[in-house]
């Protein structure tokens, strides 16, 4: 009886030892690889360049919140459009969301850099429109009205279109395609920035003055004011674009979990608009993003499908 008890006791000790060994092994592996429910975090410090456009600011901050919840450290860097594409193409930057608009707006940049960049996929399909916009109180409705100087509009506007960053795809399309197409060669496309353009628009509307600006949707300006696009009979601005998430070559292998989030990231104009309006009303962009993420957990869970927080 004593011998039998000893064998049972020895068996129990061996079993416990094996279980402890297995648990220790799993903990060590998780610590070494940064495992995220089977998908490794990999490189934890990532850079995300962005252009200071309202839509882009909303997107990058939301993704920053989601990725940092998984255990990443995301550095946001404000750059020009050209620098954003060049940085991702040469690998000095890791990824971008919210600023790559295809197939029309950023056609020239994609032709130059596309084969050096990983197009992860569409984050907002056929929802981005661009054009020249005016306050609805203006008595012009088409780009042809600029050509024909309807209601002496050329003199009233001093033949000036208020634009954004000189390197923006919309600016290049307006200058190189739209203006020649509508015989606006003697007009000036004034390069400023996104915030400067909306500042000029705000001042003009406050004084009920005429103004024409380069604008895109989604943008909080269409929520704030009663605006209209000038019709484009020649369709030189193209059909609605899609927003794309992009990354440097190799990010999928270097930061698998981050890449998976970007691959599953999808939202709507309405989603983006909620963040943009909060920022426009004075909320810090990161705080606005955190609030949106907290209020939209069902959607965020889809982006983090098969992942779990590493914290």
TrEMBL record:
<dbReference type="Pfam" id="PF04069">
    <property type="entry name" value="OpuAC"/>
</dbReference>
<keyword id="KW-0472">Membrane</keyword>
<dbReference type="InterPro" id="IPR007210">
    <property type="entry name" value="ABC_Gly_betaine_transp_sub-bd"/>
</dbReference>
<protein>
    <recommendedName>
        <fullName>ABC-type glycine betaine transport system substrate-binding domain-containing protein</fullName>
    </recommendedName>
</protein>
<feature type="signal peptide">
    <location>
        <begin position="1"/>
        <end position="22"/>
    </location>
</feature>
<keyword id="KW-0813">Transport</keyword>
<keyword id="KW-1003">Cell membrane</keyword>
<feature type="domain" description="ABC-type glycine betaine transport system substrate-binding">
    <location>
        <begin position="44"/>
        <end position="295"/>
    </location>
</feature>
<keyword id="KW-0732">Signal</keyword>
């Amino acid at each position: 009886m004593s011998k039998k008890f000893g064998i049972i006791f020895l068996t129990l000790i061996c079993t416990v030892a094996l279980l402890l060994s297995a648990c220790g092994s799993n903990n060590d592996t998780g610590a070494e690889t940064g495992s995220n429910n089977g998908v490794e975090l990999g490189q934890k410090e990532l850079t995300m360049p962005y252009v200071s456009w309202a839509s882009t600011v909303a997107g990058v901050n939301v993704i920053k919140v989601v990725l940092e919840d998984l255990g990443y450290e995301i550095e946001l860097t404000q750059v020009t459009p050209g620098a954003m594409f060049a940085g991702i193409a040469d690998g000095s930057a890791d990824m971008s969301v919210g600023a790559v608009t295809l197939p029309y707006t950023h056609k020239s940049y994609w032709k130059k850099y596309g084969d050096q960049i990983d197009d992860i996929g569409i984050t907002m399909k056929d929802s981005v429109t661009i054009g020249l916009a005016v306050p609805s109180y203006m008595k012009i409705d088409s780009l042809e009205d600029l050509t024909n100087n309807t209601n002496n509009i050329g003199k009233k506007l001093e033949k000036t279109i208020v634009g954004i960053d000189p390197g923006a795809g919309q600016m290049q399309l307006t200058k190189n395609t739209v203006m020649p197409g509508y015989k606006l060669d003697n007009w000036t496309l004034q390069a400023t920035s996104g915030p400067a353009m909306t500042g000029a628009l705000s001042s003009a509307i406050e004084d009920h003055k005429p103004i024409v600006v380069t604008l895109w949707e989604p943008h909080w300006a269409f929520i704030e004011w009663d605006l209209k696009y000038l019709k484009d009979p020649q369709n030189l601005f193209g059909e609605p674009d899609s927003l794309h998430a992009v990354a440097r070559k190799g990010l999928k292998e270097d930061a698998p979990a981050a890449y998976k989030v970007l691959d599953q990231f999808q939202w709507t104009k309405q989603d983006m608009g909620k963040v943009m309006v909060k920022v426009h009303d004075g909320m810090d962009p990161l705080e606005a993003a955190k609030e949106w993420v907290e209020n939209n957990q069902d959607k965020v869970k889809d982006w983090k499908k098969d992942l779990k927080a590493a914290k």
